[in-house]
Here is the input.
Amino acid sequence: MIEPKKFWWMIKKELISLKRHPARLVSILAFPIIMILLFGYGMGGEMTDLPIVVVSQSEGNLTDLTLDTIKNTETYHVVEVIDDLDEGKQRVESGEVKAAIILPSEYDEDSSNQKSVTLYLDSSDQMASQIIESSTQGIFYRLSNMVASQTSVSTQDANITPSIAHSLDNFKDDISLHVNKIYGNIK
Here is the structure.
């Protein structure tokens, strides 16, 4: 067991030594900060313009709004908008793109069903996959709020019956995002 008196004596001795040799104090304070900065620079940084493909099997105003929002996001570089689901999956598996966002055929329908979007994600690059997943979740959260606000404004402005207003309120449910992680071509 450590005796408190000896412990304080050792601390006092070290402080006296640091006072006599100020270069040691500088190295004790500077080296950890330098190491943190070096590791932070090497491991971090911003990831932008990650290549993705959008598989759009739907047409309409919501689809157009979604595509514009995705294309205007700095995180992504939309390589192409296609309509073939298998081609989108194949591009992710081959490593050509980091992700494929799938907008299904019923995405733009005016129904009370919750909208569902699928994200096929190449998980071989963990940092990129985490950034793409969180950015995509944020996009569809914002889109859900935009649709909800537009729907509530349109129901307030129009003379509609309560049953129609109820069905429009059901329409403004969140857009759910399903993430399928694929371990693509690890380079």
